[in-house]
Sequence to fold (325 residues):
Amino acid sequence: MRALNKTVGCSNLNLVAGLSLIICLSACGDGGGGSGNGITLPTAPVTITPQNAPQVAGAAVDAAFGGAALPVGVTSASSSEASAAAAANTVARIGRSAALQVISQGATPAVVTGAVTTTNCLISGTMTLSTTSSTSGSTTYSNCSDVAGETMNGTVSLSNIVSTPSSLSTDAVFDLTITTASPANTMTAIGDMHLFIDTMTITMSGTSLSMGNTDSALGNLGLQNYSISFDSLGNFTVMTFTFASTAINGTAVFTMTSPFLYSGGMLPSSGTATISGANSTVLKLTVLGDETAVGSQVQLELSTNGGSTYAAPTNVTWASISSKI
Fold:
């Protein structure tokens, strides 16, 4: 998370940071919900039990934080877990490029609104930029390769770009396939988001972001009905979403109940959240320290009556519940 190097403000780079984060959240995590876009995801809420509580917590943690600490632009990895994070950063890079292209060309008086410009990608293939107005446009990729061993097809669209001296907002839609040679995988990224940036915060929200992978080790994942905000220091101030995970073969609702704060680690050093499943089951997650802390780092408490009472806590490490560490 810290390595994203986010600076909150109204420049184009802030739009990029927001695009990068939300794509990381959807792609690196085992996130949630639905298969109407062609990506098969579990739709039934999971009942949380003492036996599956660590797996449910891990899926939620990966949805919230998985891969977010990798620098944007990482495109290779040595394991399937890291490859999922690298894939998320690949999508973030594509989103960043498309956003900058649309904003730049749409704001240039010399460019005729509605113009279509096709350019060659760095290695092979093409990308076509179409501006529909000064506040909207899209980039379409055709067998485009800017990185060796990676090819992309599909479209990134931005609309309703509104910029003021103190804020920036836009709506984004992704419909992409990214094929990588190592590991051999074709990832499909489909979804929407609204992004708002002011001088102190970045807020992202939307109805659905889904990821499908032909590599079974990566699985299918997504976020649904999400709202996520973080401040200029990278601390999360709002985080709620429904996530679906093939790792737990179900869905659950993740709600941050106190801010996730960082003190230099890849994962937060404090904060609390609840993970709500079927049959009135609720798993409370309390952060005791980041991944560098000695001893227990996360406390888990299970309720079977909707959060009225909780069983005795279980203390674990981040590494024991997350596959992204």
Notes: Helices lie at 12-28, 53-65, 80-106, 318-321. The chain has four helices and 14 strands.
